[in-house]
Amino acid sequence: PRAVPCPDGQSECPDNATCCVTASGAWGCCPMPQASCCADKVHCCPHATVCDLTRGRCLSPTGDVPLGTTFPAWKRQPPAPVALRQVLCPDGRSACPDGATCCQLPSAQYGCCPPQNAVCCPDHVHCCPQGYTCDPEGGSCLQEGGGRRPWVQTTPALSRAGDVKCDEETSCPDGNTCCRLSSGAWGCCPLEQ
Predict the structure, then answer these.
(1) N or C, which end of the chain has less CB nearby within 10 Å?
(2) pLDDT at residue 78 greater than cutoff 60
């Protein structure tokens, strides 16, 4: 489905609708093409008609119709995947997704443990959530209060070698180009240079 971009560059409305500013200052959508947005920032009227808020009608030479009501616009989907913020591992070459923890693997390379601030187990294969300790005998994570849960397997980290760095925190996959989005955040364009 095609969409109508609103002037803020961040909101959009369905095809055949019109962007109108709402009372909150955000963009809303009038469910008709090229509509007139009314001064109350709630209602709208078909193309080439005039809002008459006192009578609650849209005036036109061919006859009056009831006022239309706007509905909230939605945020535009960025055209390219925005690089996820990554956690850089101590070796400077590996990175884990935001919210994960870098743990060293038996190969001395880094892996990623899904929970944030996780505890890396001495076997270099497993890890436990924050507040737990690794129990290598029982293959589980122990909590001080006596709680027990299965330990988590560490997955290999993403290699940063081929990534295109946008800034210290953001990178795009190899072969992409970093492009600034209208929001000021980085996006990734899936073409080189």
Answers:
(1) N
(2) no
Domain span at 93: 87-158
Higher pLDDT, 47 or 153: 47
Tens of pLDDT, residues 37-49: 999 999 999 999 9
Residue 145 lies in a domain: yes
Angle at 80 between CA 112 and CA 186, to 5 degrees: 70
Query: Do the Cβ atoms of 166 and 150 come closer than 8 Å?
Result: no
Asked if residue 176 and residue 116 are part of one domain, the reply reads: no
- Which of 75, 106, 133 terminates a domain? The answer is 75
Domain count, the chain: 3
146 DSSP 8-state letter = S
Give dist(CA 162, CA 72) in Å, integer.
Answer: 41
SS3 annotation, 98-144: CCCEEEECCCCCEEEECCCCCEECCCCCEEECCCEEEECCCCEEEEC
Task: Round to whole Å and give the CA distance between 21 and 139.
Answer: 58
Contact between 141 and 153 (Cβ < 8 Å): no
What residues have CB less than 8 Å from 22, skipping those under 6 apart?
28, 41, 42, 70, 72
Residue type, 97: P
Distance CA 81, CA 153 (A): 27
Last residue of a domain, one of 43, 75, 107: 75
